[in-house]
Amino acid sequence: MSLSLPHAISTYFAISNGGDIANIKHCFTADAVVTDEGKTHQGHAAIEAWQRAAQAAFDYSVEPVQLFTDGNRVTVMSNVVGNFPGSPVVLKHTFGLAGDKINALEIV
């Protein structure tokens, strides 16, 4: 399924699916905060390190399947398939947007 996602979120999912991690700075604000698996990652360097660690640990792909918007908050339900325990799973990505970039992301 192809959803019409804001550019920053589309770029984030492209990175998650093996795109150039250096593009983190193009989709997140400099002070953005990512919360995933109970851990918080703030700023481009920390978010980039988190993405690199996730991609090094497992092979996976993420397919956004549903989109909900509420002002500057965008929630994307995604199917995640890979070689990690419990695969496949449906994850909820809740993005906060500031202008044309992501300033917050919570994954549950």
Beta-strand portion reads: over 45%
Low-confidence runs of at least 5 consecutive residues: none
Q: Which descriptor suits the 3D outline?
A: globular
Written as H for each helix and E for each strand, in order along the chain, the element string is HHEEHEEEE
The overall average pLDDT, rounded, is 95
Number of strand elements: 6
Portion in helices:
25-40%
Structural class: alpha+beta
Architecture overview:
β4 and β5 (89-98) form a beta hairpin. The mean pLDDT is 95. The protein is built from three helices and six strands, in the order ααββαββββ. The protein has a six-stranded mixed β-sheet with strand order 2-1-6-5-4-3. The two termini are 21 Å apart. The chain is globular and about 35 Å long. The protein has 108 residues and is of the alpha+beta class.
